[in-house]
Amino acid sequence: MAKVQPKVKKLYYAIGEVSELTKLKAYVLRYWETEFSQLRPPKNRAGNRTYRQKDIDIILKIKDLLYNQKFTIDGARKMLSGRDNVTKSSGTAKVYYSEKQQVVIRKIREELAAILKVIQR
């Protein structure tokens, strides 16, 4: 998962800036706040959310879990809370993968996809 580097490094970012950086709609970010206890950006006096770099990193981790690794919200919540033994169905049997194993599997898949592209040329 690549770390997003904004053009101008700041301590706090508005929800619109974070939305632009992460390529997610603002309503998705607000919804994820209700679903993930790890994502609680503080609010300023005006009541606007003020995201820090660690909040952006959490958002990117959630995005990766949900969109790339195809976890459910509940599964992503368990992964973020540190419970590595999240079940993933493969056919009828349940398989348990740790976070490190999932990274290795994802890298292998990427390499196999690159090999397949070379073969298809």
Explain what the structure shows.
The chain has two domains: 10-71, Multidrug-efflux Transporter Regulator, Chain: A, Domain 2, CATH 1.10.1660; 84-121. Strands 1-2 form a two-stranded antiparallel sheet. It is globular. It has helices at residues 15-22, 26-35, 53-68, 73-80, 99-120, and strands at 86-90, 93-97. The chain contains five helices and two strands, in the order H-H-H-H-E-E-H. Helix content is 53%, strand content 8%. With 121 residues, it is mainly α. Strand 1 (86-90) and strand 2 form a beta hairpin.
Topology:
Layout: H1 15-22, H2 26-35, H3 53-68, H4 73-80, E1 86-90, E2 93-97, H5 99-120
Antiparallel strand pairs: 1-2
Helix pairs in contact: 3-4
Describe this structure in a few short sentences.
The chain is mainly α.
Rg from alpha-carbon coordinates: 17 Å
| Helical/strand content category | mainly alpha
CATH topology of the largest domain: Multidrug-efflux Transporter Regulator, Chain: A, Domain 2
The percentage helix is 40-55%
Average pLDDT over all residues = 83
- Report the portion of residues in β strands: 5-15%
Terminal residue distance: 28 Å
For the biggest β-sheet, the strand order reads: 1-2
| Largest sheet composition | 2 strands, antiparallel
Mind telling me the CATH class of the largest domain?
Mainly Alpha
CATH architecture of the largest domain: Orthogonal Bundle
Ranges with pLDDT <50 over ≥5 residues? 86-93
Task: Supply database-style keywords.
single chain, 121 residues, mainly alpha, Multidrug-efflux Transporter Regulator, Chain: A, Domain 2, 2 domains, two-stranded antiparallel sheet
